[in-house]
Amino acid sequence: MNFYTDNENLSFYLHHPEMDQVVAVREKNFAEAGQHPEAPADAVQAVSQYEMALNLLGSIAGEVIAPNAEAVDHEGPTLEGGRVHYAPGTRRNLDALIQSGLYGISLERRFNGLNFPRAVVVMAAEMIARADVGFATIWGLTDCADTIQEFGSEALKEKYLPRICQGATCSMDLTEPDAGSDLQSVRLKATYDEAAGCWRLNGVKRFITNGDADLHLVLARSEEGSNDGRGLSYFVFDKADGGMTVRRIENKMGIKGSPTCELQFTNAPCQIVGERRLGLIKYVMSLMNGARLGVAAQSIGLCEAACREAEAYAASREQFGHPINQFIAVQDLLSQMRARTDGARSLMYETARYVDLATTSRPASRIADILTPLVKLNASEFANQCAYDCIQVHGGSGFMKEYACERLYRDARILSIYEGTSQLQVVAAMKGIANGAYLKQIDSYEARVAEALAGDAETVAGTPVAELKHCLDVLRKATEAYKRLYALATVDGTTSDRFEHMTRALTVVLSDIIMGYLLLLDSLRDARFLASCRYFVRQSIGQATRHIAALENC
Amino acid sequence: MSYKIVVLAKQVPDTHNVGADAMNADGTVNRAALPTVFNPEDLKALEMALQVKDRVPGSTVTVVTMGPPRAAEIIRDARSRGADDGIVLSDMRFAGADTLATSYALSQLIRQLGPVDLIFGGRQAIDGDTAQVGPQVAEKLEIPQVTYAEELLDIADGTITIRRRLERGTECVKAQLPVLVTVTSAATDCRFPNIHRMFRQAGEEVRVMNADGIDADMERLGMKGSPTKVKKIENVVLAHKESRVLEPTEAALNELSATLIREHIL
Fold this sequence. Notes:
heterodimer; A: alpha+beta; Butyryl-Coa Dehydrogenase, subunit A, domain 1; Butyryl-CoA Dehydrogenase, subunit A, domain 2; Butyryl-CoA Dehydrogenase, subunit A, domain 3; 4 domains; two-stranded antiparallel ribbon; 17 helices; 12% strand; B: alpha/beta; Rossmann fold; nine-stranded mixed beta sheet; 11 strands
């Protein structure tokens, strides 16, 4: 089984019309062509390389990682003498990916990376998560390398990045017992050792995913006497240098193959990344945005797995003389699961493309910033809903441990919590709501759809234009309803409790409108997205009017 | 000491993905309708060869295959997994070859490569299941053979130690090089291709040789060199209704033996 070739949606987004621009930006207009034996000469060759790599990764996901997932979930990692030992299946997964060169795929070629854009990296992450979300956290943490690549000194890059491409595992050490969502409270101490010419870490980190990794990015307090985010700096710690032990592995509800650790740093030598005091306010924020997109990819991978488990079961399970997928009540569940998956996926690749374009464009960077919390929020909530519905389709069997849906349900639960809870994503969206940035983005989608439907053609991509125009009309109405809802929510201003209470509702309506537009744009290329588009069209107008009614009447 | 290793490989129809149009009306295989794959046991043979290369640095692995030009795909695949080189033996004069003519052509090609220390091949190909080509190549090259290999145990001082499958259990065999080894499906799965090697060799040519390049007797190639004549192929489905239940008595077993001998099964 190949998780790339059996999912035509991935190829659809890989060949998105805007990918040429993404590739050109990533490849700096193909400056390395002819200089490096693996550098592509044009967008066609680059996309062909992406396909080659995704095909290979798809086979590893389908043939190695997915078959290992159940045993890894049962066995989990173990702790011995302060060191973590992965479950045997996790080790096999890592070996296959390292052997195939699919580690550090976003890193520059001079470090033996593949220089893949974010839009391709998240596609790889989606496939791995479909196979095993727990393992996806371990593989995905190589994103830490991007922070070193972006902000680290040349010496730091040369020292660590080639190792990551060879398979060194990574962790992002932020959380502490008293610093979870509030990272300004981080207390782990970093002091400069003049004699040794390095920084030293002392203190405890908690809930650290893949905590016994080879390389750690650690947020620590470098400015003695400070007590806010401006006293924090960012460090890279190499486990081989000693000074860190794992005190415990948490006994978790899900993603059990991924070791979540409590770490004790004792005079651990480390090196600073970038400048002092910018640890939280610049570097972690950058890393966090990437990590949120990564969690969205994990969520969509899980949604895809849940859809497939439910669809296969509903096709084979017979009741009352018919497969249960012939009953409308079950069809509703299945189509909603598929729609949510399609909507979140379309939003994720849209966001990833903007993240790629953001390196050379300030407007693209602003759009990437406003879309990131939306995709993290929606994808992770949808993953939970899909996992819930997957069990529902399975009926009593789904409640038993024999079916994969039980593991999916447990694995999904963390997605709306880590790398910023859903509530924090809503907070992150508040600025874009208040300054109209989301509405501006919606206007640009509206203009693109309207332009595409302006001609005399009766059908577009096999769909009657009238049907597409109807979706457009409803999305326009939903946008007007959103504006009405916003007006009601801000009668006391944007700093009022009323507005804060309403931000989640506003965020959800905005999300539905945006996903509706994105799926409408996708439907202009392929009619198979129309059913999912209609779901979000209905959701957007339904949610907006429901909240308006509530505010007007209560 | 390093070794020169050859792997015999074949591109075969993917019998796991057989559609309704897989067979022609005359009973022959409709190759155009079938996707092709690296013969699974040949991939295991490649892995064993690469394990020797891992253990004995400086060793080289050359994959050889006979087939149409598109068989170059499996050479590229093998190179991306770690093989150093590969050759496609392709010529219309090889067409219609049975195992005798195939093993002759492959052995002549191997002779052109100079002294070879080790030859690995899959036990059999999934499109023919004869398990004859490997042993016949060994016979033609007049070197010993170890068949049904499952695991490489050791390679040192010009000898190889292999665990091989027997009808009831396994045995460990130590053989002096040169030797030909056929590998079964129980051996270790082949390592995955490496993406960097895939990118680097995407534009590289695959060496293709024809009948003129292997110093062959043309009478021993292709259809001419193949004593096997396929009269007819039919699809036999063993239905449950044809089964018989026998009493566990001596008389019943004697009758069964007699029936099987009469029907040329035994």
